[in-house]
Design a protein that fits this description.
Number of domains: 1
GO molecular function: G protein-coupled receptor activity
Helix content: under 10%
Structural class: mainly beta
Distance between the termini: 38 Å
Strand order of the largest sheet: 1-2-5-6
Order of helices and strands: EEEEHEHEEEE
Largest sheet: 4 strands, antiparallel
Strand content: 35-45%
Organism: Austrofundulus limnaeus
Low-confidence stretches: none
Number of helices: 2
CATH class: Mainly Beta
CATH topology: Chondroitinase Ac, Chain A, domain 3
GO cellular component, one term: plasma membrane
Keywords: Disulfide bond, Membrane, Receptor, Transmembrane, Transmembrane helix
Radius of gyration: 17 Å
Shape: elongated
Protein name: Adhesion G protein-coupled receptor E4
Mean pLDDT: 81
Number of strands: 9
Length: 144
Amino acid sequence: MSTSFVLCVRLSPSSELELLVHTGPVQTQEVKTLSVKNAKLDINMEVAAGNPSQYPGFTVASLLSYSNLEDFTNGFFSGMKQEENQIFKIISKVVTVTVSNTDTNHLKEPVRITLYHTEQPNEASQTCVFWDSSEDGGKWSTRG
């Protein structure tokens, strides 16, 4: 027998969490969706669970959204090439996704994270970035 439950929590005025816990066998093609304000996660439960030989009997996935973190991280674009008169600005929420899978380097299926714009973007100059914490305490990067 398997059971899944989703917990939605507003952690503070500045963060929101949706947490999925699944116990029992994992259905290989089952896709679960987690959503918070301005962001959505679609994940295959087999990908979230990880290696079947190390499966502890439960799977956890979470989507954490920070309501105003983008305001504080706009100055960390030092590693990105800037064209003349170009200004970088975060126009979506900053989110963190976690899963039980301890090896997320080469996933069998993609994890789909949908970020909704918080303001109207200039379509010609959008760039997708992630927070790279491996260098100098962290910065936005287009690598990967």
